[in-house]
Design brief:
There is one protein chain. The protein is an alpha/beta fold. It has a single domain, classed as 3-Layer(aba) Sandwich (Rossmann fold). 33% of the residues lie in helices and 26% in strands. It has 7 helices and 14 strands. The strands form 2 sheets. It has a 10-stranded mixed β-sheet with strand order 1-2-3-4-5-13-12-6-10-11, with helices on both faces. The chain has a 4-stranded antiparallel β-sheet with strand order 8-7-9-14, with helices on one face. Helix 6 packs across helix 7.
């Protein structure tokens, strides 16, 4: 029996990946041909015929990884250095706002100087290689600027307006920098999509919107993002085959930046 490798919410053993969100979701993985990705596989819940070439595809990228925007709370006493929270997930965001509502004070906010961390660089590189490999001509690309702004606007209840403006300004800069890098790296007709500007929908609904509304031949996702097409499928939508990439160990999305690579905001 082979060793089990844990990659966030994904477990890999004996050449098969399993998702912790639903034990019935599993698919074969093998070594990736891209230098930016370690393993990849196709989740194909509808048993579609897998082709060597596809005309169009859906993909996306989180603007900030776990340590790209970090909220450090003041120490709560001797031996308690203070909590550290990020915008990594709904759970983290709820915990962040719960602490703020309970009167916990933020000591500083650290935002990476550039958006070109290990996660972003590897994922864009793998996406470019995948587009080339499958001959994809049209690529719908989700960069969730509006989704981040929903959370940032909620911070206005707890932080000075100047501080919130600095966070949103930095997000806007990083969004534009990533957009340019994507356009310069991926050889396809790119269309950046913003579901929340098209429909009156929630953040979670916006992540599912591309698979519900665009007739894509293929999805290209970092392997933990399998939850998005999975949740979409549960709403009754038909989804295409999903190419999933395990970028490497340790998980790039959770990799910290060097302290010197941050801009520090004091609320």
């Amino acid at each position: 029996m082979g060793e089990t490798v844990k990659y966030g919410t994904i477990f890999v053993k004996n050449g098969f990946a399993h998702w912790s969100g639903d034990s019935s979701v599993q698919f074969e993985v093998c070594e990736s041909g891209s230098e930016f990705c370690e393993l990849e596989g196709i989740w194909n819940p509808n048993n579609d015929v897998i082709h060597n070439k596809y005309f169009n595809a859906i993909t996306g990228l989180c603007i900030w990884a776990k340590y790209d925007c970090v909220f450090k709370f003041e120490p709560r006493g001797k031996g308690n250095p203070g909590a550290v929270r990020s915008l990594i997930s709904t759970e983290h965001q709820k915990n962040l706002f719960r602490r703020l509502k309970n009167g916990h004070k933020i000591e500083k906010i650290l935002i990476s100087e550039t958006p070109y961390g290990q996660y972003q660089s590897q994922l864009i590189g793998w996406q470019a290689d995948s587009v080339k490999r499958f001959g994809i001509k049209k690529l719908w690309y989700a960069l969730p600027f509006d989704e981040y702004m929903v959370t940032i606007k909620e911070l206005e209840r707890f932080l000075p307006p100047k501080c919130v403006h600095q966070i949103s300004h930095k997000l806007h800069i990083h969004y534009n920098m990533l957009k340019e890098k994507i356009k310069n790296t991926i050889d396809a007709q790119l269309e950046f999509i913003h579901p929340m500007r098209l429909d009156n929908i929630s953040v979670e609904e916006s992540y599912m919107w591309p698979y519900q509304n665009l007739e894509a031949d293929l999805g290209i996702e970092e392997i933990q993002e399998i939850r998005i097409p999975y949740q979409t499928m549960k709403t009754g939508s038909m989804i295409p085959p999903i190419l999933l990439g395990l970028l490497g160990m340790p998980v790039p999305y959770y990799s910290p930046r060097e302290e010197t690579s941050y801009d520090c905001l004091i609320p």
